[in-house]
Amino acid sequence: MTKLAISVLVPCYNGAKYINRCFDSILGQNYDQELIKIIVINDGSTDNSLEILKQYQALHPTRIKIIDQENKGLAVTRNLLVDSVDTEFFIFSDVDDYYLPNAFMHIVNASQNGKSDIVTSRTYRIGINGKKKIWWLSYFVKKHMQPIQYINSNMIWVWNTLYKTSFFRSTGFRWKKDCNLFEDTSMGHFVYPLAKHFSCCKKFTYCFTENYNSMSNAQRLCKTNDFDFLQQVIKQFDWFIYTYKTSSKKNGNEDVFEAVINNVVYLYAMYLAGMFYVVPHRFYLPFRRKLSFKKEKNWRKAALLFVASLNKHGIELKKPTCWWKRISYFLETKHRFNPYIKLLSFEK
What we know:
- This protein has helices at residues 19-27, 49-59, 74-83, 103-109, 147-152, 165-170, 183-191, 215-223, 227-251, 257-274, 293-312, 322-331, and strands spanning 6-12, 36-43, 64-69, 89-92, 98-99, 118-126, 132-134, 161-164, 198-209.
- By secondary structure, it is of the alpha/beta class.
- Helix 9 (227-251) runs parallel beside helix 11.
């Protein structure tokens, strides 16, 4: 069996309740333990997460590295984690999730003897009630897939995927500060098309836990109806389109540009619509709010801002689905987007 040195990157914010399960799943892998290293960042936790992390570090001083920082958000934390990697490969894990015992063995076996730039696999979903179910998206994972096929299936996530360190850094991708929503989507759509060697493992390796208090979800729950927050969501979308356009021209990936952009538009539109009962999707249930006049006004402004970004980049809406018509209802006054175009400033 191929042996690869792997760094497991764990962003931790108020994860005291889950650290034991997460770390035990990594340290208990049926894989050469000397080849596994954990790098964890305590992102300003207010519970006893740091204390528990130090207990694990005391037991495994050469294999666990702790970085303690004031709260800087998920994007900055992920960038620092990648910068800290000193092994040939790395893989992410959220602190509230965990890996199955044979996960690393299965993923490494699918890596084409270490030639793969990216190796992804299948996932279980742990519901709020604690029941484990197959994440339906995992059914689309096939042994032989091209990166663009994987992107089109909307299965992109940061965790559960092995990355070759040299490849990931060569892409030049950096998570944008304050962009803590769809951070896995922005990364995947940017990085995956650049992979020359892409592999899929059909084994189930990871258990994703639905946790509405996680680093990314906590921000959504408390600021869903705040227009400033919605504006940040659109700015993140605008930033991604700009960055991806630049990258596509530089790396000669213009042939997959349209497919990737269409996917990103779909995801952001669904997110905006899902928060306000426009899309009947179970995942958005805790984030939704009934539309009072003020909330509807904020949503309409956000929708117009979204259209402003689409027009700015010459993108047309192309998803002919039933709920897409509901979104289009809010976007039909396109001539009104001009006052919002000035709000689309972002750091390049």
